[in-house]
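Q: Please design a sequence for this.
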């Protein structure tokens, strides 16, 4: 917060002024109609034009929305129109440029590499285009995805995400490690962390800025890319265009949007978004034992790698299911470090289990699809799904055992109760 750094705040007009598709970023002010309505009435398509109106809006002011599973399950690669969205600062006024689904083309956009370096380096998006890119299919998931389910033990503050704070998309860009090597800024011996910052500044200069820090020796960074395309086109503004850091296998908050600065430092950023928020305690805590203000960088760990997880896509409670042969299906994923080798499914609430057929994706960071045919009789059945990987990492049957004050990293075995007729 109190670092010496240039401010990158800009208006939508400035943001779009130099871009090849500047005309696509329309200078509309959405704040008035939104303020006039109660949060519950606001449609996602009013907040970010082009998002489907069926999205579940959690926070209209910030444009936070999740995808109903009925939509999410229809696509192997999640289209941007239904992709969940999460931003930390109001999407109106100064930051109205963040509320756009239009691809952002900004060849002149510049990223500064500085901090403990002997040479400050700068690259533009045009430079990145020339450097040779790689594409990765990957799950993107908010650390708060599934927070609503912790309420079975004690409600956690924040957006009550169910399962739809996730997506499976492709990002294309330049590997971060390759870029650093080519730029050769001359890293100081004391460098332990990389801190990445974006152009969406807080509403007041004193407000905490959103930036994230990573251990420079974290092997996950070997897969990190500075992405310039999502699903084959320049990244939409609301999803971080023109440049977004993407660390496959890491929780969503780690994928900083609108990247303007990569800082090499001895310590992690002091901003609350790194030092207090997006952290889980190192020791188990019970509800009421730890306040958000109690979080420190020594008693907690950032929400880095995904915990292994599976989600039932079909049938959902909203589906009408006929007695007889029923295909139960869904997705599973982890941090990409070890293959998922087993997805077990129960149709009797967890008393008996059968192994589902698993489809291994080409990318270790993408969704695994799984399915199982089961005979279901008329009546009510609780379906449960649970994934395990080659390292033996699995999901707790009761996800609330992982309860934490902010409700991060839910990965309980998924339960869906269906009524069969
Ligand atoms: N610059 C910037 N990057 C950001 C955020 C933000 O507010 N500002 N939110 C983070 C969080 S918490 C999540 S979950 C993801 C959401 O990505 P999406 O909106 O593209 O789905 O972006 C992350 N990157
Ligand atoms: Mo998030």
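A: Design:
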């Amino acid at each position: 917060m109190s670092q010496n750094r240039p401010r990158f705040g800009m208006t939508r007009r400035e943001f779009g002024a130099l871009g090849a598709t500047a005309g696509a970023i329309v200078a509309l002010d959405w704040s008035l109609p939104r303020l006039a309505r109660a949060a519950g009435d606001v449609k996602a398509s009013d907040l970010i034009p082009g998002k489907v109106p069926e999205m579940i809006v959690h926070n209209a002011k910030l444009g936070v929305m999740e995808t109903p599973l009925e939509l999410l399950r229809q696509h192997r690669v999640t289209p941007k129109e239904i992709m969940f969205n999460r931003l930390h600062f109001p999407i109106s006024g100064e930051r109205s440029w963040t509320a756009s689904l239009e691809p952002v083309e900004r060849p002149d956009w510049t990223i500064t590499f500085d901090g403990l370096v002997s040479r400050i380096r700068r690259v533009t998006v045009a430079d990145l285009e020339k450097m040779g890119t790689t594409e990765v299919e990957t799950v993107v998931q908010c650390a708060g995805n599934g927070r609503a389910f912790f309420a079975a033990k004690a409600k956690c503050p924040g957006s009550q995400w169910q399962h739809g704070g996730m997506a499976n998309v492709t990002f294309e860009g330049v590997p971060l490690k390759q870029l650093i090597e080519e730029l050769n800024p001359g890293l100081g011996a004391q460098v332990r962390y990389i801190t990445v910052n974006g152009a969406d500044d807080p509403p007041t200069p004193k407000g905490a800025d959103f930036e994230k820090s990573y251990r420079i020796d974290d092997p996950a960074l070997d897969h990190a890319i500075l992405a310039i395309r999502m699903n084959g086109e320049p990244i939409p503004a609301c999803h971080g265009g023109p440049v977004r850091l993407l660390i496959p296998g890491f929780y969503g908050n780690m994928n900083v949007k609108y990247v303007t600065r990569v800082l090499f430092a001895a310590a992690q950023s002091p901003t609350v978004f790194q030092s207090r928020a997006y952290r889980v305690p190192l020791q188990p805590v019970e509800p009421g034992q730890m306040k958000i203000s109690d979080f420190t960088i020594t008693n907690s760990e950032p929400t880095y790698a995904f915990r292994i997880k599976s989600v039932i896509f079909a049938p959902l409670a909203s589906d009408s299911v006929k007695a007889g042969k029923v295909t139960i299906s869904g997705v599973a994923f982890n941090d990409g470090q070890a293959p998922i080798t087993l997805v077990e499914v129960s149709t009797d609430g967890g008393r008996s289990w059968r192994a589902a057929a698993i489809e291994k994706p080409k990318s270790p960071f993408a969704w695994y699809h799984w399915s199982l045919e089961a005979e279901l009789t008329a009546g009510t059945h609780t379906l449960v799904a649970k994934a395990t990987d080659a390292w033996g990492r699995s999901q707790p049957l009761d996800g609330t055992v992982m309860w934490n004050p902010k409700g991060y990293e839910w990965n309980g075995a998924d339960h869906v109760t269906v009524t069969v007729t």
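Q: Thanks. Anything notable?
A: The longest helix spans residues 176-183. The chain has a mean pLDDT of 92.
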